[in-house]
Amino acid sequence: MGVLSEGLTQVLIPVAALIGLGFALLQWYLVSKVRVSGHSGGHKSYKDSLIEGDFEEGVDSLEVSAKCAEIQNAISVGATSFLFTEYRYLGIFTGVFGVIIFLFLGSVKGFSTKSEPCTYNTGNICKPALANALFSTIAFITAFRSGAVMGFLLAANGLLVLWVTINLFKLYYGDDWEGLYESITGYGLGGSSMALFGRVGGGIYTKAADVGADLVGKVEKNIPEDDPRNPAVIADNVGDNVGDIAGMGSDLFGSYAESSCAALFVASISSFGVSHDYTAMSYPLIISSMGIVVCLLTTLFATDIFEVKNVSEIEPSLKRQLLISTVLMTAGIATVNFFALPSEFTLFNFGTDKVVKNWHLFFCVAIGLWAGLAIGYTTEYYTSNAYSPVRDVADSCRTGAATNVIFGLALGYKSVIIPIFSIAIAIYVSFSLAAMYGVSVAALGMLSTIATGLAIDAYGPISDNAGGIAEMAGMSHEIRERTDALDAAGNTTAAIGKGFAIGSAALVSLALFGAFVSRAGIKTVDVLTPKVFIGLIVGAMLPYWFSAMTMKSVGSAALKMVEEVRRQFNTIPGLMEGTAKPDYATCVKISTDASLREMIPPGALVMLTPLIAGTFFGVETLAGVLAGSLVSGVQVAISASNTGGAWDNAKKYIEAGVNEHAKALGPKGSDAHKAAVIGDTIGDPLKDTSGPSLNILIKLMAVESLVFAPFFATHGGIIFKWL
């Protein structure tokens, strides 16, 4: 037993979560008090603005202030309306899929209400399979409701809801920890299901509007980005909220839920569960609790100790937060290991017990944490216009869009190398030290600084919205230059966030894969057997099929948006001259309708694949599908996200004209700039829809397979049974 008692563990986890929630609400309150005002009297000594100078320079009149408030309200209403509609549809999905979970898992033992001998803790009696079906369904619905939040609120809320769910389920399960934590896997499935539709739906919404606004506004009409004359500009800014904020938040919540559930399940069938060592069992939750505290301290470093004074300090400051949180979390992991874990214990390792020491788990979590930092810094190198890769892409625009596309694709493929080696090293070390449990906590280590990662990721769309509001309200050129600088830094930090999400998805998926193999009773996964190999090939194909569906969805929605924007420019007198207002609402409706309609086919592909493969072809073939999709999906996701990010920042590099090279390629409206805009437009669905959604594909199929593993093991393989 560790030094930390069960009673203290039961206190510390919710306290850390409540601290995170309180801090999130405090930050929300402070931000909500910020107002755009034309009155600067009494504020001349105000020094908290990002860049030193007159407070709110460029806000010249009450008219501009009122216009800002009107635009901000329109964006907020549009985002809220879309999310409300989306979650209403997803609520129906939750109910239907919840019934499927109950029926499939309940049928494993013929809906028997009798207790059964435990599968792993031999000699003990576990609760009936029907109870596991019911509680897995409840956990699925609980997690679905938790997936719609962000930042500290996400990290704290996810932890608190999981802790409460475990303790409520414990009232029924008692000492049956095997059944308890089998049921908790439904929590991971719910979180990932929410993430899939949030990412795909939000991604289609934002990119349909973005592509439509850019192609007509910038390329055809040669007007600035976010120009109020552009009918798609409100829809574009709404998309930043529903795609990049809500979508990314639900994505990383899914990763957090799945990595926690995978670790808890493996621990429950190891010595932690057998000996009922609650503190050691709660090790994943304690790590997450420590992460909240560390991220809170990191935020204080960024806002109160190392204040940003000028534009050049923005990106280094954001990178510094990653490094500070990683260093502090390393110390935090060592502390948790000393107090929460016994000096030696055994972990389940595919039918055998592996003896592990507590310092082994320290290295497992730490290597996941530092692998995340390596992926983040590599992503920053390949997507920031401060380095040569993006500048080379910008330079290729001199000869047109074709060379820009070629250079961008090459950059994306090359950017895969270091992240894959980082993930491979993390997998090898963590598995060697602590089997699949080690891989699970390595994923948790990568996600332990999730609050800081999400704050950095959200920086991009927030800055983008700020720039849009400034442009539409007619603020001064200096204000727009500042928001463009913030936006360029934000694009890089958003790419870093996507890198973390993809890297953690690889580790989480492998951990879930191991848990699935264990729960399905598979002794070995032999790729030389036909059943496994056909699954491997099909699984490797799925990311391409999924990407094709999401890319075409964005293209179809963007086509309608382009046609509508062109129609308004051609039929509304005075629109181009600025004497008439565009019809923003129609463009918002096009994005909303398209995203809600087009998110269904890719979602169905992901949700139905494990059910079909497991039911008709069996657990061995499904294992091949999961392995193939993991290996293929990670590569495609990294290259797609980084290619799109590089194209975006190459365009901004030309627009900003920060040096002689950039000035030679510009200014806005030049042939090189138009080529860069085309590359950016192609990259939009890659970096904000298909790429980020792929990590959900590999996670969701794995956790769904884990939840339904008892059904597949009992009733699966119908086709092979006939042959």
UniProtKB/TrEMBL annotation:
Organism, scientific name: Carya illinoinensis (Pecan)
TM regions (residue ranges): 12-31, 89-108, 151-173, 281-302, 322-340, 360-383, 404-429, 435-456, 500-522, 528-546, 605-627
GO MF term set: diphosphate hydrolysis-driven proton transmembrane transporter activity; inorganic diphosphate phosphatase activity
Superkingdom as given in the UniProt entry: Eukaryota
One Pfam family in the UniProt entry: H_PPase
UniProt keyword list: Ion transport, Magnesium, Membrane, Translocase, Transmembrane, Transmembrane helix, Transport
GO cellular component terms given for this protein: endomembrane system; membrane
Location of the protein in the cell: Endomembrane system
Entry's EC annotation: 7.1.3.1
InterPro entries the record matches: PPase-energised_H-pump
Record protein name field: H(+)-exporting diphosphatase
Membrane topology term: Multi-pass membrane protein
